[in-house]
Amino acid sequence: MGLNQSAPKITAQDRAILDLKLQRDKLKQYQRKIQVILDQEYEIAKAHLAAGDRDRASLALRRRKYQQSLLLKTDGQLENLEQLVSTIEFSLVEKSVLHGLKQGNEVLKEIHREMSVESVEKLMGETQEAREYQIEIGNLLANQLSVDDEEAVQEELRQLQVQSTQPELHAELPSVPVEQPVTIGIHETRAKEAREGVPVPG
Q: Treating both helix axes as pointing N-terminal to C-terminal, what angle do 54-114 and 12-50 enclose, rounded to 10 degrees?
């Protein structure tokens, strides 16, 4: 059942195009066959002429001329078939483009219905009301604060602005030593102090 659903649907137009292409291929095969006959008749005419038989050479050339006329006819038929196939295929492309344009127009109409003048005006009105409410709340809060409180609010706002524009400072810690510490024994210390004249405790 799944295979039937995934199989491409073959339309009448597809069959018509396929039939035309098959006819075109048959004409091309027929042309190749005629070309072989033309080459053979030419060689026969040359052979008869070399043998001194002019009549048979003329007959071979007449047959060759007849085959050439058939080749010209098949050329015309082949050209007509090619044009017909191209016209049908282009018409199918035009049809699919028109279908896409029709679907696009339907989508645009739906968008326009959703974004009607009334809905846009309503949205703008709600936005304006929200802005006015925010201003009103701000004014009420400003009236409730003293001059000192308002100045403190403005100062805090300035500090926040400065902090937001300055990069964060990270404290630099000393690097970890890579060498082992040198330990000096007590005897060495006393000997050094004795040399330097430092009194050594008994």
A: 160
